[in-house]
Every structure is written in structure tokens, then in C-alpha cells.
Design goal:
Strand order of the largest sheet: 3-2-1-4-12-13-14
Shape: globular
Helix content: 25-40%
Number of helices: 13
Largest sheet: 7 strands, mixed
Structural class: alpha/beta
Radius of gyration: 21 Å
Oligomer: single chain
């Protein structure tokens, strides 16, 4: 099967725009790019690009595709099947936003990955963490004071709670067995969990090093949910590959991340979104969450600006699932707010993200690369906010298939 996209302007991040190009897709890959006429098969599907802009499909490095706000009350009320069915509209919303690959930081399981591969519904490709490792009493330990445990578990989806070297070792192995592509660890308190505070570190250094050692045995990266400055330094020392959120990062820690080649996924959108929209009135913990959120919003943007200035490798991630899905590329606007150029922000969600995932044929519009592409009606290098409006994203291709 061939598809020919005619007359487009190609944007590869950190490169000059290539104008008036024709792009031939064969199967899952880009076979040829040329400013001249391209020879194709008689039954080629032709798409008129109308001088619009062709970009690589985006990679959201921090999502929760099954999640719909992480409201414990809904976990209690809904039958388990709703947990899975939620993923179907969430996946379509994500695709329609121009995101063709996601890195899920907790809640999705192997069934989603297999469903996407088998094309049971339109969905982004996924890198799985299955469930985060969390210490007793830590962020996302969902055992409530009432004595009820609100963590969703079922066969093939292990409980994430673990303590001590032996337990974290076993839990890492259980998560690997369940089909994880990387390991996610809750290394500080967070906003959504009662009785935890974002500024405090979680897990001790021996536990963190044990997790990394076991992950490395399978050549897997380890990611840290971490707002805490001390927690970040513990994770960097232990050999983590990325810090998610990074709220209280400072210049010294940023320099340490550069030296140790640790990436940062700041998820700026989620805090700004929640600060504006708040939490449902029926959320029993809305007031506590709001107070913690106010403290984070005060310093997050300024501190991430420091990290950018020090040269930390910043990747695009949104924490979608905590907030509604489909707003993913609004994160690019927030990345430019911390000092990034539009080009750099786009790179954070394409080529840089692909490099982090170990994909050397993804994240750019080039011959022999995977045909994950989006066609946009305006030049995002002039105004990156055009990407935050899903109506401006005219077409989305995934593995060469037109999915929007």
C-alpha cells in the first residue's frame, strides 16, 4: 500500500524547513521525499497537502491513558470494565491531538499495547510502566484511613506497594513480568494522594539503587515521579534515567542531571490546568489537593527555567489522565514560556523524545523513518500555539495509516 502526500512544507525540528515537497509512504515507512515528481504505483492513495506543514507525530512522554482524573470514588463505584473502556475514547482524543506515541507512567497494562498493535481501535503506540512502585504511606499508596484499599488490581496487573530491598526487588521483577517497557517509581509525595507532601523524598537510597540495578539487568530505564529536591538527588545518584515533574529543582541539581545524562519531563501543563479548573466538588480531598497545588504552581515554572538554562534535556509530557486527554500539545506553549524556542519545544516532543525511547527511526520526517506524521494548517515555528488547537491538525498518520 502506498500513500503520496503532495505539496507540503516539511518541518524537522532544529533544521531548515523544506518547502514544496512530495512524500511517498510505503507500508509503515517513508520511502521517498522529493521536490520533484515521485513515481508511484497505479493504486497509490494521493493526499493533497495544499502547501500545509508536515511534522513528525508527537510523543507524549508522560501520560496515563486509562485514567480519568484518578478519583478514588469512581474506582469504588465503577465496575472494573470501565477502567479499560475509558482507554478507547482517551486514545482517540490523544491521536486527534497529534500524538502518535505515548509513554504511560502508570495505569495502562499489556492489553492496551496488544490492542493497539492488533488495531482493535485507533490508539497511540505505547511504552508501558504498568504500575508505579510506591512505598507504604507514599504517593499513590491508595490505602485510606478508612481501611479500604482503593488500588485497582487484577490478574496481570500487580499491586505497586513495596518496602525494603527484598520487596522492591521482587516488585520490579513482577512489573517486568507484567510487560513493562520501563520502571516508574514514586520518589516524592504528590498532589493527588492524601497525607503526602511533594517536598519530601520517598524510598531510601538502597531501595532506589536496587530498583535501578534490577531494571538495568534487562536494559530498562527507570523514571521517578519527583517534586522533592532531595528526592531528585537520591534518584540521580541511584542511576535513574528521568525525573518527572521536577518542581523544586535548583541550579546545582540541574547541573548534576546534565553531567549524569538524566532527562527531565516537567509536565507544566497539568499544574496550570488544575490551578484553573480545580477538582470536582464531590472530591473528598479537593481542599488538601488545592493547597498543595498552590505551592507547586508558585515555583514550578521558574525552577524549570533554571533547568533549561543549565542545559538539562527536557522532554514533552503532559500527565494527561490527571487532566482530560486531548490537550497534549498545549504543553509546547508552556515549554516556550520557560525560554525554549518553538523549534526546541517541538524537538522535545519528537526527535528528542524518540532518542530517549531508543527509537532511531522515529521523530523526524525522513526517508526510511516510520511514517508517524501530522499535517498542520499553519507554521508552528511562527506560533507554536497553533498545535494546541486540534482543529489545526488536519491529518494524522500512524505507521503509514491515515488515522485522522
Amino acid at each position: 500500500m502506498q500513500t503520496l502526500i503532495e505539496n507540503v512544507n516539511i518541518i524537522n525540528p532544529l533544521e531548515d524547513i523544506k518547502t514544496h515537497q512530495n512524500v511517498l509512504i510505503e507500508g509503515k515507512t517513508i520511502k521517498e521525499i522529493s521536490s520533484g515528481k515521485i513515481s508511484a504505483k497505479e493504486d497509490v492513495k494521493v493526499i493533497e497537502g495544499d502547501d500545509n506543514y508536515l511534522l513528525p507525530g508527537f510523543i507524549d512522554c508522560h501520560t496515563h491513558i486509562f485514567a480519568k482524573g484518578f478519583h478514588k470514588e469512581e474506582n469504588m463505584a465503577n465496575p472494573l470494565g470501565i477502567h479499560f473502556y475509558n482507554a478507547v475514547p482517551h486514545a482517540l482524543q490523544t491521536i486527534n491531538a497529534g500524538v502518535t506515541t505515548i509513554r504511560d507512567c502508570g495505569s495502562a497494562d499489556l492489553s492496551f499495547k496488544l490492542a493497539q498493535q492488533r488495531k482493535l481501535f485507533i490508539a497511540p503506540k505505547i511504552h508501558l510502566s504498568i504500575t508505579p512502585l510506591v512505598m507504604t504511606g507514599g504517593h499513590f499508596d491508595l490505602f485510606l484511613p478508612s481501611g479500604w484499599d482503593m488500588e485497582i488490581i487484577y490478574p496481570g496487573f500487580p499491586k505497586g506497594r513495596c518496602d525494603g530491598i527484598e520487596e522492591v526487588l521482587k516488585k520490579t521483577r513482577e512489573v517486568k513480568r507484567a510487560g513493562a517497557d520501563f520502571i516508574k517509581v514514586m520518589c516524592s509525595g504528590g498532589v493527588l494522594t492524601t497525607n503526602t507532601s511533594p517536598e519530601f523524598a520517598q524510598f531510601n537510597k538502597k531501595e532506589l539503587k536496587t530498583i535501578v540495578c534490577e531494571a538495568c539487568a534487562s536494559d530498562m530505564k527507570v523514571s521517578a515521579h519527583c517534586h522533592s529536591l532531595k528526592g531528585m538527588n537520591n534518584c540521580i545518584d541511584a542511576g535513574f534515567s528521568s525525573i518527572e515533574h521536577g518542581t523544586f529543582i535548583d541550579k546545582k541539581t540541574a547541573c548534576k542531571m546534565v553531567k549524569k545524562n538524566v532527562s527531565l519531563v516537567p509536565t507544566l501543563l497539568v499544574h496550570q490546568f488544575l490551578a484553573k479548573s480545580g477538582f470536582p466538588v464531590w472530591d473528598s480531598y479537593a481542599e488538601e489537593k488545592t493547597q498543595k497545588l498552590k505551592e507547586i504552581v508558585k515555583v514550578h515554572k521558574e525552577n524549570i527555567s533554571v533547568a533549561y538554562e543549565q542545559g538539562v534535556n527536557i522532554l514533552m509530557g503532559t500527565d494527561s489522565g490527571v487532566i482530560p486527554h486531548g490537550h497534549n500539545l498545549e504543553e509546547l506553549v508552556h515549554l516556550t514560556d520557560i525560554g525554549m524556542s518553538a523549534d526546541e519545544a517541538i524537538a522535545a516532543g519528537t526527535v528528542k523524545a524518540a532518542e530517549f525511547l531508543g527509537k532511531d527511526n522515529l521523530g523526524e520526517v525522513k526517508e526510511n523513518y516510520v511514517a508517524d506524521l501530522i499535517l498542520v494548517n499553519s507554521n508552528p515555528l511562527d506560533d507554536v500555539s497553533v498545535l494546541s488547537d486540534n482543529d489545526n491538525i488536519l491529518n494524522v498518520f500512524q505507521d503509514g495509516d491515515l488515522v485522522k
